[in-house]
Amino acid sequence: MNKELVILFLSWIVCLFLLIKFIPKEKKRYYQIIFLFAHATAWIFQLIQVNMKLISFPYREFEQATKMSFSLYYLVLPTFAVFFILHYPEKKNWIRILIHYLIFSNGMHLYMFLIERSSDLVHDIDWHWWFAVSIDLIVLYLVKKFAFWFRKGFK
Amino acid sequence: MNMERWILVGIIAISILAIFLFVPRKKAREAWVLFLSLQIITWPAGLLAVEWKMIDYPIQLFSFANEFNRSSFTFEFFLFPVTAIIFSLYFPKQFRKIGRFFYYFLFAGFFTCLEVIIERHTELVDYQSWHGSYTLISVMVTLFINHTYYNWFKKELKETEI
Asked: How far, in Å, CA of B141 to CA of B26, rounded?
């Protein structure tokens, strides 16, 4: 088995384990809808970035059908988003909230950065840390807006 | 712009219009659930069908689209999700088994007829090893999974104004 497959396999195991272990059972619908929304958003952002030739995925699950990565945006980024909301410091001041955003956007990029360095899963063509983190920040902000609006509809 | 692209623009416009016409504001969250959960199914399934060379979409809305992603954006992210939203929001709960089956059949049949006509007369869809009957069955199965998830999800939803 090559290292790309090992990384993907481990990512699936770790993400599923974290989601099953730490999502409160009584709120599973709320976190599921966050996961679904984050997937849809991340996917569109990925499409834009691949289109602009900012990033490429030399090793990917669907070699012929797409130039985009599947697992990274189907599972890994939505998992980040779920934990972003799960630990969102709602009642804290804006500095604490800003730090929260920075931790998660940099965390997402750190993951991408590490697999970029160690495998062919991601290849940065024209990529800057600040740009990647800004995109992650936008995704997280959209997820937060959606999540806080959606939860008003629960009984 | 050629006829194919006008058809796609038409499908997208009708899909957006249908959302405004058929989704009551009180059910906005339910529509979101249906829209998002369907994507989780169609995204890998659509890619798989293209990867295994079962189906191809020679003309897409944007001419550069096939360079990056060969599954159909318009069908999987507009037409099918909107069909699924209307399907579940207006599901006839009072019907018995045969009536329900017929309701599934009606929606999937409509979707299949549309796709077969488009396949025959335009360059939008090209069946390679695919067949219209696969569409019929896969759409029915997908609608069933999506509707089941929706029924489970909405047990904890209340109807609120936006």
From this structure: 28
State pLDDT tens for residues B115-128.
999 899 988 888 88
Question: A14 is written with which tokens?
Answer: 């770790």
The pTM for the full model equals: 0.91
Buried b (16+ CB within 10 A) or exposed e, A14-44: ebeeebeeebeeeeebbbbbbbbbbbbbbbe
Number of domains in chain B: 1
Strand segments (E) across A9-104: 55-56
* CA distances to A28, A53, B154 from A34, in Å: 10, 28, 15
Residues A59 and A67: their CA atoms lie apart, in Å, by: 9
Domains of chain A, by residue range, sit at 3-9+33-153
A33 and B36: CB-CB below 8 Å? yes
Residue B65: predicted pLDDT: 74
In chain B, which residues have their Cβ closer than 8 Å to the Cβ of A36? 33, 36-37, 39-40
User: Rounded to an integer, what distance in angstroms lies between the CA atom of residue A68 and that of residue A46?
Assistant: 7
Check whether A124 has a pLDDT greater than 80: no
Task: Report residue B81 as tokens.
Answer: 């999700």
Pick among B27, B40, B153 to test the A interface (most A CBs inside 10 A): B40
Domain that holds residue B72: 3-156
Looking from the CA of B75 toward its CB, the CA atoms found within 13 Å total 23
Percent of chain A with pLDDT over 90: 46
> Would you state the pLDDT for residue A150?
94
B158 touches chain A (CB under 8 A): yes
